[in-house]
Amino acid sequence: MRRSVTLGIPNNVKYLPIAVDVIRHAAQIAEIDTRDIVDIVAASRELLFNAIRHAYPKNLDGMIDVDIMFHPHGIQISVHDMGLPFDFDSYMASERTGGLKRIVDYVDELRFSNLGRKGKSFTIFKSHPMDFEDVTFQPYSDLEDESPASLKPASIQIRDYECGDEEAISRLIYNNYTYSYYKSLFYYPHRIRELNESGEIASVVAETREGKIVGHFALVKIEGANIAEIGVAVVHPDYKGKGIMNAMLGRIQQRAKELKLDAIFGEALMLHPFSQRANLRHGFGESALLLGVVPNTVSLTDPNAVRTEKRAAVLIGYKILSGVTSRKIFMPTDYRRLVEITYANNRLAIEKAEMPEPRKANRITYELSRYTQSGTLVIDWVSEDFAHTIRHYLHILYRKHVEMIFADVNLMQCACIDEVVRVLKEEGFAFSGVLFYRRGEDDYLRLQMPNSDNVETKQIVCHTDFCSRLLQGISEELEAF
To answer: pTM of the prediction?
Structure first.
């Protein structure tokens, strides 16, 4: 269903506050960040004021139409009039300041459309802010499998991002996915540039001798932790199967060590074994199986991949870079064996954590991911009344109509982990795995619960015995509930 709000105001400045108030409320409904709402309102006011004052000849009455469209990744506002023709390109190329040029500083995109006899329109777009705490990028598993023996051609250079690469990176994503790539921020070159300049991502590209960008890979740093996800990985269709992906992943790992990250992790789509094999070849240890985080709109180029109309699963693989060989945790009794083999799979020994002083209050909260349509209950530690608080936050997540609900329980701080696990299992949660260094320097036990019939639990491909054991345990728990 098309989600939009449309209104019209006369070209009189006294009606301006009405339209501005509607736009402000629409941005709040779209759950835009408070700081971004200020920018949206400023940009919209500028557009409307210009239309009211300049669109129609003096003393000629006319209407200004406003169309507000809600998107999963942001909000779009169009201002339309039937007034005087306007040469937008000449205006933007001029030395004038302020006015429409000021709008560019407020929004992610400003577009002008000359509609001929149907007038003209200005459209602005503001995306949701990147939420790196629970963001899951499009897995790179639908790229061709590359054997270790395949080597990139000598004419291909793997290098770090440089200012000016951003448009080519956006076009690479388009060449692989057209506009189906659900991390839509990467269709905006200036956002790629800003994120690299701020250090929130660290991109690596593959460049031909002629200067053509044919590959991209990135480290996406996780806020509040010293780890990064590897993702946003694409190779131009004409250059697949030449070892470029492996070469870029090698540089990504070097970059992570230069940044002194504690760990990196990646996702492998579980509709075929290709990216699972790739992660294993590069020394990643499987640690968690996450159901339902990949939208059913993902299209795969591999004809042998399992097909599903539901949201697909991913397998998380970690590579520990900190040099530690053991971790002190509180062992969840119900999942002892699964946790033990997960740590062993990542070459980490387990020591018993020291019992802390009794907690006087709960440290429980929740996170939402718009991109994966999931919510995560985060439980660092609990006091006596924790069960009520857990159920309170769960009901909030139920009302958000997310497809998946995860529960992350701090293995290094939550001494009452058995009691917490018992309450979560009563609510229908099953095992998912372990997320190392997920927040701060702590490891988390991740549990999961589908909150929709649109989550695939059957059509899942495992490449290793470890993965198969994870899947079997998860399936048995879900079926028993």
So the answer is: 0.70
